[in-house]
Amino acid sequence: MSGEKQSRLYKELAEQYRDKNINQAWLCYENALYHYQKECVTEVSDIDKETGLRSEQMDPFCRECSNAMRALENQPGFVVAKTAVILLSYNHGELTQACIESLRQNNSPKTYELIVVDNASTDGIVQWLRQQKDIRLIENQENQGFPYGCNQGIALAREESNILLLNNDTIVPPNAIFWLRMGLYEKEQIGAVGSVSNNVVNYQQVPQHFETVKEWLEFAAENNVPMKYPYEKKGWLVGFAMLIRRTALRQVLAKEQAVSKTVLPEILDTRFSPGNFEDNDLSIRLLLAGYQLRLVKNSFIFHYGSKAFQRAPEQFLNLLQINQKKLAEKYGMDLIPNSAVETALVNMITSRETSLRVLEIGCKLGATLARIESRFPSAEVLGIEKNEFLARLASGVTNVVQGDFLEMVTEELCQNCKVDSLDEASQLNKSFDYILMDKVLTDQAKQFLEKAKVCLSANGKILIVVYNAQCIRSVRSDVEKGFTLDELTELCNACKLQILRFNYQSAQLSKAEKQKIVELCGSWDHPMRLLYEAEKFIFETAV
């Protein structure tokens, strides 16, 4: 799309937002002006000798956008701030240079400040960084790790700037940061937003596959455009490209009583040095401070992947295990498995034009429900989580109540799903189109299913995931001991539930484990192999 077309597009968007969100409207005018000046005004610094005006001041389009921006700035509630881009550098200078050049090429210098923290590189990149006039540089004499280096960069940023943590092995396409900023200002409660990418965890990776950077940037040009539903609620965001509201950071520090004039504030917890899981931790702290997190699906940033850790994969895996354990120790439980999206359940839900009501029993951090809301924007969802801490976090992600499903009355369920309160439990039969049970069935399975049937709509379905107790590598706690296929079939029959669909997910088996299955079944091709190969069973059932 040409610069002129983009400028017209974003000006039209600004006019649509003016009565809805003045901060997003201002950002759209700013982006329209940037694209117009970049390609349509050849020399914005030229001064006309007769009028004394700059060339962009004489241009009607530039003048109209500038006047509109000034008018919005004078309205109550205008809070747009610049972005402080915090970039850590440790060797791989060519990647750092490419990242910085993409920032310069695709963003107005008026919208951001660039702070680079070099962690004692030895490849000559520091000499290049020193020569860049638009960079504020911190030179560490030893590698302080990612969390500490980010804290140094944040401390150097202007006090009012929002913070973009950006990996140096990224390429920032046009409009990627713009859409992140739009997401951050979608409403006041949003504390941080993150980008999608080609190489990232936490379900932030796009499904497309390309071989070259050029192809990915062509994809970005098609992706980083206005979307009707661009946001997905998240329980945590990956720090490779994470834009954080400055006021949210202040609130987190104030809540933790961590503000100090003599000690570098620990925005990122340095116990996770040299890196990994500090972004999970910050996300959790933002949720606990009352903020929400969003994935911005129309902000794609290309990511090469961690070059430093790729050279020592075993060391990297060990670091992941150590830091995941540190995170669990900090919060008293392992939150990583509780933040997983059960994609198999999401894929079983079919599209509907009418409103869709979904209940998840044992929703953990609410990630699966958030994915359902993203895929079906008109859906009404409700999560029930027994664990008080998980429910507290999940309530910042989606519609969640804390409690024991078996002890909750049907009227309470009805009210939490925004349905009229009903007197008789039997009248609740038209409430939930889908009820999800992701690895929550235990010795009370029959009671769970019988009560779920009462809350199910006439044509509703119960979607179930359980661990396979016969899996060849099944080593689980009593809570997750699972069911055999026969046990689950008998359970459904006892509850008068019809099995509509059945699937399973295979465990990652070693050669020895595969050989053991062959010994049990007689051959690898035997149909009974799934009884031992399956890690999880997935059922779709109905009354």
Index terms:
7-stranded mixed sheet; alpha/beta; globular; 3 domains; 543 residues; 8-stranded mixed sheet; 39% helix; Rossmann fold; Spore Coat Polysaccharide Biosynthesis Protein SpsA, Chain A; 19% strand
Can you walk me through this structure?
- This protein is of the alpha/beta class.
- It folds into three domains: 71 residues, no CATH class; 249 residues, Spore Coat Polysaccharide Biosynthesis Protein SpsA, Chain A, CATH 3.90.550; 203 residues, 3-Layer(aba) Sandwich (Rossmann fold), CATH 3.40.50.
- The chain has 21 helices and 17 strands.
- The strands form three sheets. An eight-stranded mixed sheet has the order 3-2-1-4-8-6-9-7. The protein has a seven-stranded mixed sheet with strand order 13-12-11-14-15-17-16, with helices on both faces.
- β2, α6 and β3 form a beta-alpha-beta unit.
- α1 packs antiparallel against α2 and α2 runs antiparallel to α4.
- The radius of gyration is 26 Å and the shape is globular.
- 44% of the residues are buried.
Report a brief summary of the structure.
The protein has 543 residues and is an alpha/beta fold. The protein contains 21 helices and 17 strands.
